[in-house]
Amino acid sequence: MIPRLRFAHLPTPVEPLPRLARTLGLPRLFVKRDDQTGLAFGGNKTRKLEFLVAEAQAQNAKTLITAGAVQSNHCRQTAAAAAKFGFDCILVLAGEPPGHPSANLLLDHLLGASIVWAGKRGNRDRVLAETFEQAKDDSKQPYLVPYGGSNSTGALGYVFAMEEFLQQGVKADWIVFASSSGGTQAGLALGARLFGYQGRVLGISVDEPRGRLQVRAAGLAAETSEKFGKRIEFSPDEILVNDEYCASGYGVLTEGEREAVRLFAQIEGLLLDPVYTGRAAAGLIDLAHKGFFGKDETVLFWHTGGQPALFAEAYKDL
Fold it and tell me: Is 72 a catalytic residue?
């Protein structure tokens, strides 16, 4: 039995997007609403935290420590999980403290997390390691939640998410979603193998080169498979990644993200975030316009959440 705390609002709904499908020239378009997982505005990390927090409890941890960007959805959900289950929480954030916390950062403070500022993004891993060691020295019994929740424990969330989706009875030829730290994609890839999904799983890279993300997700899927018994190997080529939309850099808005956020909002009343789902949706829109999807193929957009970032000062020009 794999340890799990069941606090996400599951199953998340699958909804048709008929007006957007017509606009994009697709025969059928659906959305899987993982923005509705329920933990402090929800998002995909909540599924991962069901397993990660269970592991932290099993190890008698007292403090959850993780890292991310200033507007990290992962950090916001980790802080919420810590509050819900009685852990202290330390977040190591790249950047400098703003004058007026907004959006996810405001929520981090509200949820009681302690913030350690790492300065430049390249310093984050070093500061995270130092923060973790200091917490051990201070007898805070820390548990390190990996970046993005993306290790073999966290990836379990999306192995079982694939099983959940298949049980909902919607036939999709393509699943399209935002991919970055690799845990969501690794879990979906393994879930597809274990539970017999016959379509294709396409990650739109938010910030990583295609080859690097493929290698990471393939290795993580194989590592995660060991929790179910015999190891299942994945080749990087089995992990479908499109990195054509991330050249501007992490969190840097282009007209593609702006168009996607507006289009989903104004045609379907569906809110995306500027960084992850906005970029993935921009990729989906562009691919649809290019005729990438077959004329009779059904596409499912897996909404991984993140809407609090809409209220960040950095994205006020949406």
Answer: yes
The reply to whether 34 and 182 lie within a common domain is: yes
- Residue closest to 288 by CA, chosen among 174, 185, 181: 174
- Distance CA(279)–CA(249), nearest Å, equals 11
Q: Are residues 188 and 250 in the same domain?
A: yes
Active-site option among 72, 102, 179, 180: 72
Intra-chain end-to-end CA distance of the chain, in Å? 46
**Tokens matching residue 227:** 């929790």
Q: Within this chain, do residues 171 and 252 fall inside the same structural domain, yes or no?
A: yes
Number of domains in the chain: 2
Judgement on whether residues 65 and 201 belong to the same structural domain of the protein: no
Q: What pLDDT tens digit does each residue of the chain (318 aa) get? A: 899 999 999 999 999 999 999 999 999 999 999 999 999 999 999 999 999 999 999 999 999 999 999 999 999 999 999 999 999 999 999 999 998 999 999 999 999 999 999 988 789 999 999 999 999 999 999 999 999 999 999 999 999 999 999 999 999 999 999 999 999 999 999 999 999 999 999 999 999 999 999 999 999 999 999 999 999 999 999 999 999 999 999 999 999 999 999 999 999 999 999 999 999 999 999 999 999 999 999 999 999 999 999 999 888 888
3-class SS of residue 250: coil
Tokens linked to 77: 């959900």
Indicate whether 9 belongs to any domain.
no
Domain shared by 185 and 311, yes or no: yes
* The dihedral formed by the CA atoms of 187, 58, 5 and 125, expressed in degrees to the nearest 10: -50
3-state SS class at 31: strand
131 and 265 in a single domain? The answer is no
**Residue corresponding to tokens 């897996």:** 302
